[in-house]
Amino acid sequence: MNRETGLSSLLPGETGLVQGLWANGPMRRRLQDVGLIPGTRVECVGRSPLGDPRAYLIRGTVIALRDRDAQSVRIRPEPAAAEGGLWTEGRP
Amino acid sequence: MKGRAGVPERRVIALAGNPNVGKSTVFNALTGLRQHTGNWPGKTVTNATSVCRMDSEEYLLADLPGCYSLLAHSAEEEAARDFICFAHAAATVIVCDATCLERNLILALQVLEITPRAVLCVNLLDEARRKGIRVDLEELELLLGIPVVGAQARSGRGIRELLRAAGNVCREEIALEEDRPPVRYEPEVEAAVARLLPAARRLAQGAVPPRWLALRLLCPEDAALERTLQEKTGAAPRADPEVREILDGLPEGLRGEAAEDKIVASTVEQAQRIAQAAVRCGENGYSPRDRRLDRLFTGKRTGLPIMLLMLLGIFWLTIAGSNVPSQWLSAGLFALGSWLRGVLEAWNAPSWVAGLLIDGMYKTLAWVVSVMLPPMAIFFPLFTLLEDLGYLPRAAFNLDRCFQKCGACGKQALTTAMGFGCNAVGITGCRIIDSPRERLIALLTNNFVPCNGRLPMLVSLIAMFLTGTVGGPVRSVLSAALLLSVILLGLGSTFLCARVLSATVLQGTASSFTLELPPYRRPQVGKVIVRSVLDRTLFVLGRAAAVAAPAGLIIWVLANVRAGGSSLLALCCGALDAFARVFGMDGVILLAFILGWPANEIVIPILVMAYTAQGSLVSMTDLTALHALLTQNGWTGVTALCTLLFALMHWPCSTATWTLYKETKSLKWTLAGMALPTACGLLACLTVATVGRLLGV
Question: What are the φ and ψ backbone dihedral angles of B598, each rounded to 5 degrees?
Answer without folding.
Answer: -60, -35
